[in-house]
């Protein structure tokens, strides 16, 4: 039992909070958003053969990052799937050229398929501010599972985001079903 004569043990209290609050919480969240959340959505932060392109969900930024790999972008795109109902949202399966220890493209040229597809938005159809607002809305209405938050904006676009240790959303991005 909890010191002070509490009705529940610390373990029981923790299990209650875990089941009722942390997992499956839906509705009006009141998240704060990290300083980098908007930047991550638009701008490329890193490219690696392990995780692919980090950030850069803006289509122009994503394609520019691929162009900077010194190979034909068309060789890097495996598939491009459109969202079923929202114009300007795409899911891209892609690969990155393998690099040598010096960071140059390895010879002979070979590629690493990136495991997680990239969801991008066309800034000619959806502004950076609009996608950010949709994402914030989806996060505030999202379901929490550990550090993962998934929610849907009022227009039907789904988003996935991540929480840090202080409960702040560090980044989020659109996803296809």
From TrEMBL:
Annotated protein name in UniProt: Bacterial EndoU nuclease domain-containing protein
GO molecular function, one term: endonuclease activity
InterPro entries: EndoU_bac
Pfam families the record matches: EndoU_bacteria
Domain Bacterial EndoU nuclease: 35-175
């Amino acid at each position: 039992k909890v010191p002070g004569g509490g009705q529940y043990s610390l373990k029981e209290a923790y299990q209650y909070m875990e089941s009722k609050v942390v997992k499956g919480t839906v509705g009006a969240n009141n998240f704060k958003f990290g300083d980098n959340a908007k930047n991550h959505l638009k701008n490329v932060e890193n490219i690696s053969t392990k995780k692919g392109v980090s950030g850069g969900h803006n289509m122009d930024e994503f394609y520019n990052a691929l162009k900077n790999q010194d190979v034909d972008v068309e060789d890097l795109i495996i598939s491009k799937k459109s969202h079923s109902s929202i114009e300007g949202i795409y899911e891209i399966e892609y690969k990155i050229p393998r690099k040598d220890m010096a960071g140059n493209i390895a010879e002979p040229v070979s590629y690493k398929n990136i495991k997680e597809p990239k969801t991008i938005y066309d800034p000619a159809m959806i502004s950076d501010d609009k996608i950010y607002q949709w994402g914030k809305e989806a996060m505030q209405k999202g379901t929490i599972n550990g550090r993962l938050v998934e929610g849907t904006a009022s227009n039907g676009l789904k988003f996935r985001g991540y929480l840090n240790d202080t409960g702040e959303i560090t980044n989020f991005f659109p996803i296809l079903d």
